[in-house]
Here is the input.
Amino acid sequence: MFAPIPVIWDTSAYDPNSLEPQTIYGTLDVANSYFHDKIVTETDVKATIEVSLMDTRVFQTTIVTPPTVEGTFYALDRYETLTSGLKGGKAMANGQEIEGTFEFDEDELLYGDTAYPGIGLKYGQLTRTVVFKPTNSRNYTTAACTVTVNVLPLTIVRINPNFEDITDKPIGTAFEQLGLAEAGSMDVMRGDPQKTTIMSDTVVWDKNQYDPNTPYEQRITGRLVLSTWKDYIAPPEGASTVSVKVKLKYDPVVPVIVTAPTFRWTKGDFRLGDNQIFVSETFQIGTETPPEEADEIGALIGGEARVGGKKIDGTFSFKAGTPKWFSAAGTYNVTVVFTPSDTVRYAPAECTIPIEVVKRILLSIEPSTDITNKEVGTEFDALWLPSFVNCRTEDGSFYSGIGVTWDKTSYDLNSTAEQAITGTLNLGDIPTIQQPVPELKATVKVRLIPHDWSDWTPDSNGTHSRVCARNSSHKETVSCSGGTATCQAKAVCSVCGQAYGQFAAHDFTAEVVEEKYLKSAATCTEKAVYYKSCTVCGEKGTETFEVGNILGHDWGEWQPNGNGIHSRICKRNATHKETVSCSGGTATCQAKAVCSVCGQEYGQLAAHDFTAEVAEEQYLKSAATCTEKATYYKSCTVCGEKGTETFEVGNILGHDWGEWQSNGNDTHSRICTRNSGHKETVNCSGGTATCQEKAVCSVCGQAWHTQLHGGNRGGTVPEIRRDLHRKGSLLQVLRHLRPERQGHRRGSGL
Ligand SMILES: [Zn+2]
Ligand SMILES: [Zn+2]
Ligand SMILES: [Zn+2]
Ligand SMILES: [Zn+2]
Ligand SMILES: [Zn+2]
Ligand SMILES: [Zn+2]
Ligand SMILES: [Zn+2]
Ligand SMILES: [Zn+2]
Here is the structure.
């Protein structure tokens, strides 16, 4: 069992201001303890305690030298790297340097936030609070100072200026729908240009540069602007321009080729016809031109393509794949492509043009070397004319070794004159050239060397000969010629001087008038005739000629022959008799004509001439009457005999009427005294009827009954009947109801 025993400490030895350890003693007070009855109260045992008083003084610490941060720092370096770089620094307190540590103030916010170790630094002057913590924190206070670090910025090495082309947007796309990148990339370095990092930041595009309606490629620029990284990366030096290519989708319009171009091939000054090319000649468009053909130009001239009536700029060319040349003559349709200058708005268009592939026309054939070393008499084949010739064509092209077939028919192996032998070119196997019309012929001139002849010598048989000094087998024998043979002497050859041939025939052309040549003397009808004679020897020939005049007949008088003809007889020759029909004189109805040559009557009497108009009783045919003239027959002017034709004489007598006599029937009549058959009957008229009495006719005095005619007409004549002789026996009765129209009725009624 344990129970504490009280102690009574000796305080006299205690120094309350000593920092040294002190031992204090105490006496035990057993009497007042639980053990007072168990333990002896008096004892020498003392209690001890060692006392060390604490130093509780506090001194103000002063940082006399701030620490430094060793190292180079860049933006985005971790904040904790600053901590590890904190070095040095010196603090004093109570007059002496004191131990302790410098540390950043963990409670100080960094960039407004808790300063976690991993926070990236921003560039610029960074001032941080550093706290000095003394090792003896009881007696020394903590102290603080600031450390400023210059954080270097990251720098832009290169801004990637280009963005992927935008080509999939249709024309009209709004700027916002283009989908332009909002950020651009850049190569950024942390002090070492060899070590860069790709970072990206905001791009601000220039919207004003965008045209949503142009089909052309457009480039929109923008600026790379530091936004996210503005505290970490230094502002770019110089341009920060970026750009993107935008090509809005647009279907180009295919133009209409309204005029196809014309192909034209030239070689120097030579020019082929439009749309013509030679066989196997390259078009020279889109082909490589060999140096020797450098002056050959094939070009497409003109042509026009339009869109909506507007001409479109562009060029024509042969379509790719078009043959470079054609190997045979003919016409080939070749496709031509129009490539517009503006390939954005307009698409290529095609058309075809007919290319006429023609053979080159021969222009000239080089003359072959003259043949001058062959003697006359050389056979054609022995001339050894060249088998080939050289030619030029219309465009100046040269062709050698053209086969030629010479025309031997014109060759005269005996002529020493210059002969032009022509030849036909064998172009059959050459597809590229042709003959013009008319075709060209090859020519070669041949001049044969003449024989070296001797003089002509007579051969005694009418020929003369000569021999060639070069070759005695060359002998020429020719019939003698020249000179003139007569009937007396042969001809003398004008070449060799020998007489040759036959005597000539007599030349019976002399006309000599001598008795010995007389064939017949002149007569009444023939000239004198003589035989011709030989002009050389005078021998009489057989042909004749006439000399002098015809004598003419010596006629006697004309004698009548009694039968209408007369004759005369030649005094030189009674057999010469001329007989002619009589003529002249005039026949009448009374006498025949008398011939004016021989005085004898001949022929027949003439007919009567019934043209006389003699009004005598013997010619009267009918006397004059009331209505007809007297008629006579015509008579012969020569003998007075009565003819059959008639003529009229004198006047018509006219009627000799008696008095009007009433007929008792309201008409009255009168009779011609010359012919009682001539009677005229007329209705009574005139007078005045009353209710008591009939009217009395003013012509015949007889009362007449006017009521027959439908009442009193006041004296007008209602009806007239007239009997008239017309044309001898025709009696025509006319009714005259309307007397004023009588003439009209007569005209139409007869
Ligand atoms: Zn000869
Ligand atoms: Zn001769
Ligand atoms: Zn003769
Ligand atoms: Zn006669
Ligand atoms: Zn007569
Ligand atoms: Zn008569
Ligand atoms: Zn009469
Ligand atoms: Zn009467």
Observations:
- Residues 155-246 form one domain.
- The radius of gyration is 86 Å.
